[in-house]
Specification:
single chain, alpha/beta, Purple Acid Phosphatase, chain A, domain 2, six-stranded mixed sheet, binds fe (ii) ion
């Protein structure tokens, strides 16, 4: 056989063989891609809602009495009666590692008259440290009589429910404000002002962060709030998309300074209307107070 014929046959093999190999590989890749994409998407979305993060802050405040230097506040917010594993085991695994002087729960533990998972969480909290509670708007959702049953349960377990009242820990005051869902904003603001007149280092527990100016004007030193769920869906480098009660969302998460007031805003653990979090893992916040 002549050399040119052999060469032509080789070329023919290459012309047919290579595209065939590319086609087969492309099909294999497409199949793999088609199968793996929904699995990866599912895992990412699942983890965004299930993977609890512990956020640790050191909060310096010049008014903090030296005796309270290193005082640790563990904050739980916005559970919305969500379940994290069997009998809230995933939460307990996180909680048992944390040392705290007090626990503050900043509302919205219930969701639409269900409290099974909320009760389990409360039982865990009271075992760890003195626990203080303020209501959120969802605690009063649908039927506030239901909340009162839950409140009775919490009192039996030893939770300190602060309904527009102040309790003292020496020269540190823990003040809790009831959510304005039942009685309206005006009365809420009046109570914020009135309770702000207490003497000492004042820690305010209030579900709603959007009243930041009112809290600061009333003279609170530190505020713990929730409600905003971190903006629910967060875009990298931009932040959360929005929050109830905030036209331009400023108070979504982290520590914000408003005048002499520092406000710690938890992204919370659960969800309500929008059920998917994005770049916004469920959060437990631990704040260590530092005297300047
Ligand atoms: Fe809320």
């Amino acid at each position: 056989m002549k050399k040119t014929v052999i060469k032509n046959m080789c070329r023919l093999h290459i012309y047919i063989g290579l595209p065939l190999i590319v086609l087969i590989e492309a099909m294999a890749f497409r199949t793999l891609f088609t199968i793996s994409l929904p699995i990866i998407t599912f895992l990412v979305l699942f983890l965004q809602n299930e993977w609890i993060k512990i956020t640790n802050y050191k909060l310096e405040h010049e008014n903090l009495p030296v005796d309270y230097n290193g005082f640790k506040v563990l904050q739980i917010s916005d559970l919305h009666n969500r379940r994290f594993g069997r009998n809230q085991k995933k939460i307990w695994k996180k909680l048992e590692k944390i040392e705290a002087d007090i626990i503050v729960v900043t509302g919205d533990t219930l969701e639409e008259n269900y409290d099974r998972w909320s009760r389990i969480l409360i039982e865990m909290l009271v075992k760890k440290a003195p626990t203080y509670y303020v209501t959120g708007n969802h605690d009063y959702d649908v039927c506030h009589i239901f909340y009162h049953k839950f409140e009775k349960f919490m009192i039996e377990k030893g939770v300190h429910i602060l309904k527009n009242e102040c309790t003292g820990l020496g020269c540190m005051k823990i003040i809790g404000i009831d959510d304005h869902k039942l009685e309206g904003k005006e009365l809420f603001k009046e109570r914020v002002d009135e309770l702000g007149k207490e003497e000492g280092f004042k820690i305010l527990l209030s579900h709603r962060p959007e009243f930041a100016k009112e809290y600061s004007n009333a003279g609170y030193d530190v505020v713990f709030a929730g409600h905003a769920h971190g903006g629910q869906v967060r875009i990298p480098f931009i932040g959360g998309l929005g929050a109830p009660g905030q036209i331009l969302p400023r108070y979504l998460e982290g520590i914000k300074t408003i005048g002499d007031t520092k406000m710690v805003i938890s992204r919370g653990l659960g969800d309500s209307l929008v059920t998917q979090r994005f770049f916004n893992r469920p959060e437990i916040v631990v704040t260590e107070l530092i005297a300047k």
